Structure formats: structure tokens, C-alpha cells
Amino acid sequence: MPRAPHSPGPFTLSRRDWLRIGVPAALGFSAPPAGAKPAAAAAGFGRAKSVVVVFTSGGQSQLDTWDPKPHAPEEVRGTFRSIQTANPELRVCEHLPRMAALADRYAIVRSMTHDDLDHGSACYLALTGQFHPRKSSNPPPRPTDFPALGAVFKRLRPAVAFPHTAVHVNGPLLAPIEVAPGQSGGFLGRGYEPAELGNVTDTDRLVESLNLPADVPAERLQARHDLLARLDPGTRADPLARKAFELVNAPQVRTALDLDREPEKLRDRYGRHRSGQACLMARRLVEAGVPWITVFFNHGIRGQDDHPDDTDAYGWDTHNDIFDSLRAHLLPRFDASVSTFLEDLRTRGLLETTLVVVMGEFGRAPRVALEKNFAGSSPGRKHWGACYSVLLAGAGVTPGALVGKSDRIAAYPQSDPTAPGDLAATMFHALGVPPDAHYTDANDRPYRAVAGQPISRLFG
Predict the structure, then answer these.
(1) Residue 111 within any structural domain of the chain
(2) What average pLDDT score do residues 258-265 get?
(3) pTM given for the model
(4) Which of 121, 115, 147 is nearest to 134 (CA)?
(5) The domain spanning residue 121 has which CATH number?
(6) How many degrees, rounded to 5, is the angle at CA 85 between CA 82 and CA 89?
(7) Residue 299's domain spans which residues?
(8) CA 417, CA 404: separation in Å to the nearest integer?
(9) Which distant-in-sequence residues (6+ apart) come within 8 Å of 98 by Cβ?
(10) Contact in structure between 319 and 381 (CB atoms under 8 Å)
(11) Is the dihedral angle over the CA atoms 117, 118, 122, 123 positive or is it negative?
């Protein structure tokens, strides 16, 4: 893969050199194997109109969700029991009863793996599909970063039905207390940054922020925009100015953001909290035609240290007190909100064209232990990237499929090791973007859209 624009090396070739050797060859693309199906014929290709990433910030424990080990020693299996689902090969945590009942609606990949062991750079990896140059660290965002996957998709295929191609809900993600890298347009520029909705529980504030002043009707706003463009011709080409104008001038935006249009009982089912209402907002954005939606189910990886009584602040970074945190704060909300989201999409006929991906930056360590350098009085689990699980549903994903297998303590993949780049390629595959697609930056330098290959076993 080419490096980011600030790095030396790959871009010393002239434009003539690129044309002479060919962009695909220069990027390391190779012809498909003999007899391989073209991307357009592959199962699941282009089935999705939207991708929704539900990001479990902080590192959701695979052992205490999708890959329990009921026969392992207690220091591995933990204090929770597991329950059987309709799939005889899948047991899940006892505190996920509603998700267990929906096991025939989703697939689980239990062999995700990488070697980045800190939140900032691992979140960057998950959200961009690219390793950060400072692996296992908490680096600040930089304008030379690789763009978020939603920004890449906007570069490839800007949305037609909605002013925004990518939207982040309930962010920005904090890791641990600063904004994590990987959420921006990176070296593509701010014009490609996903729209940021933040906390959507105050729907009145969201809608009112888009209302025009009483003395500025839509016609006057258009006249002001046209005048500004004549005075400063660069305004029309300014992506930020264009985005701001489209945001306040598009009635479908105000409609999509108005959660008060939803029945009270449905809002209650999702949960009257940041995570639940963010999932509901994602469903409304799917209906509005937004291709890429990222819901940060937890806006911080670990806010419970400073706000132990505020469940909204909790993240999945449970070094200590893991079982208390999961039982009382994290799992009940997750179970209710995500199950309602899947059911709601299916009831409305949207799941067939929406790929839902529930993922975090990594998993948790197999062995339970008390860490002295962290708050809390009972044991927890450390960071663990070598093996973790993700959930996928919709858009041609085979319901009930299980991809990959972990070893007896969920420490390492036993089969089908799958990298974050492969997961990114799977999401693009569902949207109809082949794994050898590339995009260019402002200087026409080419980059491969994804670093991996689609997880073909999920489809068909």
C-alpha cells in the first residue's frame, strides 16, 4: 500500500511512469486467479444500499458476548453463564437474551485478529482499514491520516439521495479522553469528513439548529448564497461552504433528524439514552438514503472512571470490574438497542439492503485478572487484538453463519484468521465496490480503497 502523502518513497514516480507501468500494477494489484468469479458475480456484491457500523468503543469482550467458553477454567470463562441459541453451534452470554433469540438473523466472525494493542491506533485501524504508523499508541488526529472509510466511499461514490454520503452518530469517539484518529477526511480534506451528529437524545436541539431565522426565508438564503458566490467564486467550489448550505437547505435532512416523528413506544424500545437513540437515528438515516453510517454505541472508551453512576459514559474498556460493568451498564442496553435495531430494519424491509456490522477495535484478554494501575476493585480483562468477534447482518449475509473458530480459551484463531482490512473490504463489497478499486487524492496520487479481501464465506 502507498504511504500517506507526507511519507517519502512510493510517490517518487512521475505521472509518465504511472501511465507507463499502469496504476493497478504500481499499487500491487494482481489479476484474479484463473476461473475466479468477477466481483459483480460474487455473492452479496452490491446488495447493500447502506452500511451501518455499530462501533462498540473500548473493546467488547468476545468471551463475554459471542464466543463464550463454558468449559474453560473460571479464570478464563468468567462469572457469566452462556445460553444456547437456535444455532446449535452458537452460544452467547446469558445477558444477551434478545440477541440470542435473533441468532438466525445474523452471522458471527469469531476469528478477527491483528496486533495493535492500544485504543487510539486500533480505532484508527478499525475505522480506516489501515494500520497507523504509530502502532499500539494513542496518537492525535493529523491531516495526513488515512481517511475514514465513509470518507473513502464518498470519494468513490458520493450520495445522490442525501446531502451527506457518510454520517457519524453519537461521536466524536474519545480514546481515552481526546478525539481518536480515523474519524475524519484525513488527507482527502475536510470536505470529505463525515457529518457529525453527536448526542441525538435532544432531538429538538438537532432540528432547531437547522431552522432558519424568522427573517431569513429559504429564498433569501438562496439569494445570499448566490451573492456570495459572485463576490467570491471560490465559494461554490468550497466543500465546507457547500456542505453547510446543503445541510440547512435540504428538507429531507431536517426530516431525518427529527426523532420526535417516531412513536413513543418504539423510542422506548430502542432505549431513551444516547446509545439507543443513536441506533434509532441510524435507521432513519438508512431510510433517508445515507450510504455510510457509523454509530458510536459508546462515545468514549472508558468514561466510567470519572462518571461511575452515568451509564452513558461507560465504554467497553473494562480492565477491572468487568462483570459488574457488563451486567449493570453495558450488556442490557446493548442487547435491547441492537436487537430492536435489527428487528426494526427487518420489519420495514430495510435489512435486505442494509449491511449491519457490530464491531470494536479489539477484544479482551482470555484470563481475568486485577490490574493495579486501573480503577476498580474486582478483576477485568486486558486489551486483546489477537482474537475477537464481530457480528454482521443483512445485505446477503447468510443468517446464522459462523466464520472462523477460536482456540479453547478464545486467545487465537484456530481457523480463518480475518484482518480489519478484510472486514473493510467486505463492507465495500456489499456496497458494490470491488477489492481492487482505488481512489486518488487532491494531487491525483492513487490509493487502494481497501487493504484486504471480502469475507466470501459470509455470503451465498
Answers:
(1) yes
(2) 95
(3) 0.85
(4) 121
(5) 3.40.720.10
(6) 85
(7) 42-68+81-131+141-202+263-369+389-458
(8) 7
(9) 335, 336, 339
(10) yes
(11) positive
Give the pLDDT mean for 291-296: 98
Q: Tell me the residue type at 425.
A: A
Report pLDDT for 163: 87
The identity of residue 11, as a single letter, is F
Given the DSSP bridges, would you call strands 413-415 and 388-393 parallel, antiparallel or unpaired?
Answer: unpaired
- Kindly report the three-state secondary structure assignment for every residue of the chain: CCCCCCCCCHHHCCHHHHHHHCHHHHCCCCCCCCCCCCHHHCCCCCCCCEEEEEECCCCCCCCCCCCCCCCCCHHHHCCCCEEECCCCCCEEECCCHHHHHCCCCEEEEEEECCCCCCHHHHHHHHHHCCCCCCCCCCCCCCCCCCCCHHHHHHHHCCCCCCCCCEEEECCCCECCCCECCCCCCHHHCHHHCCEEEECCCCHHHHHHCCCCCCCCCHHHHHHHHHHHHHHCCHHHHCHHHHHHHHHHHCHHHHHHHCHHHCCHHHHHHHCCCHHHHHHHHHHHHHHHCCCEEEEECCCECCCCCCCCCCHHHCCCCCCCCHHHHHHHHHHHHHHHHHHHHHHHHHHCCCHHHEEEEEECCCEECCCCECCCCCCCCCCECCEECCCEEEEEECCCECCCCEECEECCCCCCEEECCECHHHHHHHHHHHCCCCCCCEEECCCCCEEECCCCCCCHHHEC
Q: How many domains does the chain have?
A: 1
Confirm whether 427 is domain-assigned.
Answer: yes
Asked if residues 176 and 300 have their Cβ atoms less than 8 Å apart, the reply is yes
Inside any domain, residue 351: yes
Domain-embedded: residue 36: no
Q: What is the pLDDT of residues 317-375, one digit of tens each?
A: 999 999 999 999 999 999 999 999 999 999 999 999 999 999 999 999 999 999 998 98
